[in-house]
Amino acid sequence: MSRILSSAKPIQGIGYDPLIGPQRVEEVEASANNSTSVDHVTPPNFNYDRNLHRMKHDVSLSSFSFLFCELVSWSRERANGIQELEKRLNGLGYTIGLKYLELLGLRENYITNTTTSKNGLNRDIKIIQMLEFIHTTFWKALFGKTADNLERSQDNVCNYMITDNDPLANRYISVPSEFQNFNCSAFVAGIIEGMLDSAYFQADVSAHTVETKENPNRTVFLIQFDEAVIKREQIRFGS
Amino acid sequence: MSLYLALIGTRDNPLYEMEIKMDPIRDFCPFIVHSALDIIEDLQWKTNQLYFKNIDNYDNYSISGYVTPGNIKFMILYQNLRSDEAIRQFFGELNDLYVKTLLSPFYTINEAIRSKAFDQKVRMLSRKYFNL
């Protein structure tokens, strides 16, 4: 840090334009001097000064539930039919999943780096590693517990299932009888789908209610991988 | 000491580029780095590390790469940089910066990063680790 402060010339940002390519500060300044004088002081940006690695990231359950209820009713007003409603919720989750994978991966690597001596920088490149990451790390980060079960379908090699006995998204939402097959966890399924897609494990994820006596909200997340993903796994790891 | 840095998106599109003192081959940098993409895309399914050092070279320049969990690639083309460890730490902090950009609700994946603040932070990083 001291080197940065002591260096004679403060560093300025000039931004990047894909049409021009990389530019140099001197060149931009020279062209600016030729025309009118433009103030090149970079404005402070609080986005970049925040710390991503705080230990606690908790959000209160009531504010989450309130926001989520609004999400569901907002989607319901705009959708015709249950299928479209689920698709909308799925789509909302998808955009989150794309970004969340990067954040979670970074935090996970940071934690393993600070708590253990080994160099824990990792990506998941096998299907089973990726699913375990979702089953354990992702579920813990989002819901504070691991998912209850992770299994492989016996009829179809592309299908995997993650089970949660009491999903947070369904806890305060009662589904009316005319919406019998609807499950609010479609939102969470969307997040999972976004994460898998951005890690190059293309898959369709859907949420289904499979109730038992003890757990009326028990939800199964069905993950159907693309055949190409399974094939890649066979070629790379021969399993 | 010279350096060219490119962040490459999932559609092989550049998200951000920076070059410092690359004069003799300044205009070829994007081509050299893109030709190394095939190598890194093969390697990324062989090992589960993030940082790939010295995957390719051109003349006296070397290329190292870094793949984030979401498959964004950070590539640098360089000559006479101090050490591999410095490059690794540089990539680590760059990953931090990239994720902070990504978390902005106004940014979508694979969009070019035009932010001046990002540019400034990356230039500060290159001064901190490589004294450039």
From TrEMBL, chain A:
Matching InterPro entries: NO_sig/Golgi_transp_ligand-bd, TRAPP-I_su5, TRAPP_component
Taxonomic superkingdom: Eukaryota
One of the record's GO cellular component terms: TRAPPI protein complex
Keyword hit for Transferase: no
Principal place of residence: endoplasmic reticulum
Location(s), subcellular: Endoplasmic reticulum; Golgi apparatus, cis-Golgi network
Gene Ontology molecular-function annotations: guanyl-nucleotide exchange factor activity
UniProt keyword list: Endoplasmic reticulum, ER-Golgi transport, Golgi apparatus, Transport
Keyword Endoplasmic reticulum appears in the UniProt entry: yes
Record GO biological process: endoplasmic reticulum to Golgi vesicle-mediated transport
Pfam families: TRAPP (PF04051)
CDD domains the record matches: TRAPPC5_Trs31 (cd14943)
Alphabetized SUPFAM superfamilies for the sequence: Ligand-binding domain in the NO signalling and Golgi transport
Assembly and binders: Part of the multisubunit TRAPP (transport protein particle) complex.
Functional summary from the UniProt entry: Plays a key role in the late stages of endoplasmic reticulum to Golgi traffic.
Classification via PANTHER family: 41-2 PROTEIN ANTIGEN-RELATED (PTHR20902), TRAFFICKING PROTEIN PARTICLE COMPLEX SUBUNIT 5 (PTHR20902:SF0)
Family per similarity comment: Belongs to the TRAPP small subunits family. BET3 subfamily.
The protein's name: Trafficking protein particle complex subunit
Organism placement in taxonomy: Eukaryota, Fungi, Dikarya, Ascomycota, Saccharomycotina
From TrEMBL, chain B:
Coiled-coil regions listed in the entry: none
One Pfam family in the UniProt entry: Sedlin_N
Any GO BP annotation: endoplasmic reticulum to Golgi vesicle-mediated transport
GO cellular component: TRAPPI protein complex; TRAPPII protein complex; TRAPPIII protein complex
Alphabetical list of InterPro entries matching this protein: Longin-like_dom_sf (IPR011012), Sedlin (IPR006722)
Protein name: One of 10 subunits of the transport protein particle (TRAPP) complex of the cis-Golgi which mediates
Organism of provenance: Komagataella phaffii (strain GS115 / ATCC 20864) (Yeast)
